[in-house]
Amino acid sequence: MGHDRFDALAAAWDDHPTPTAIAADLFAFIQGRGLAHAQTRALDYGCGTGLLALRLAAACGAVLGLDGSEGMLGVAAQKIEALGFTNIRVAQHQFPRDPLPDEGANLITASMVLHHIEDVPGFLRAAAALLPPGGACCFADLDTEDGGFHPEGVVIAHRGFDRETLKGWLQEAGFEAPVFETIREVRKGEQVYPIFAVYARRP
Ligand SMILES: C[S@@+](CC[C@H](N)C(=O)[O-])C[C@H]1O[C@@H](n2cnc3c(N)ncnc32)[C@H](O)[C@@H]1O
After folding, report:
1. Is 67 in the pocket of ligand 1 (CB under 6 A)?
2. What is the DSSP secondary-structure string of 24-88?
3. Which atom of ligand 1 approaches the CA of 53 most closely?
4. How would you classify the pairing of strands 88-92 and 62-67?
5. What's phi and psi for 120, nearest 5 deg?
6. How confident is the model at residue 3 (pLDDT cuts 50, 70, 90)?
7. d(CA 187, ligand 1 centre) in Å
8. Which structural domains are found in the chain, ordered by start?
9. pLDDT per residue over 175-197, tens digit each?
10. Cα separation of 183 and 181, whole Å?
11. Ligand 1: which residue has its CA nearest to atom 20?
12. 116-156 per-position pLDDT tens digit
């Protein structure tokens, strides 16, 4: 999905309850594993308007939010300023064009971003390479779906994920013992779309 589309969606993004609810669920999942604390340096990939990144900033030592969409980042920057947070920074970044910056992250997160990334195994390898031993990743995304989660005509890279396939990609990238949990079910008409969170750690 092009960044232009997210630029156009940015101003009203936070009005939609689903992304906010999923970000809150993923944050609870992260907290439940004791991963959000003063020593945590989080990199939230595809941070958008900061729905997860700002929750992380309230609990962690430092947060870097990266996203390809200037529009989404503009909304995030306004919110950061309004809240007066000084431990969070957002910057434009496009995977796979730009290398992931090494700023000492020990937690990498992404809420509803992986299905927009073509080369997910490559992204996971880049994430694993950045993390120190014991560093972790936590992602929320869709289980394999029928393509109806997004509006018609919207091009996405993946119609959700098969958990076993994603588990294999995580392990091949160098993460160990991925753990999946269903964190929400999103209803659209007759269809129910389960959302998982996955946690995995660098040995
Ligand atoms: C569905 S939105 C989720 C935003 C935010 N994580 C949330 O939960 O509200 C996906 C975000 O990923 C970003 N994104 C998608 N593909 C990307 C890529 N290849 N590189 C950088 N950002 C990307 C988009 O710009 C968008 O802000």
Report:
1. yes
2. HHHHHHHHHTT--STT-EEEEET-TTTTTHHHHHHHSSEEEEEES-HHHHHHHHHHHHHHT-SSE
3. 6
4. parallel
5. -65, -45
6. confident
7. 21
8. 3-201 (3.40.50.150)
9. 999 999 999 999 998 999 999 99
10. 6
11. 94
12. 999 999 999 999 999 999 999 999 999 999 999 999 889 99
pLDDT score, position 170: 98
| Length of the chain as a residue count | 203
- Evaluate: CB of 3 within 6 angstroms of ligand 1: yes
48 lines ligand 1 (CB under 6 A): yes
User: What letter would DSSP give residue 189?
Assistant: T
* Displacement of CA 184 from its chain's centroid (Å): 15
Tokens of 160: 């959700």
Q: What's the confidence (pLDDT) of residue 86?
A: 97
Nearest CA to ligand 1 atom 1: 112
Binding site membership of 68 for ligand 1 (Cβ less than 6 Å): yes
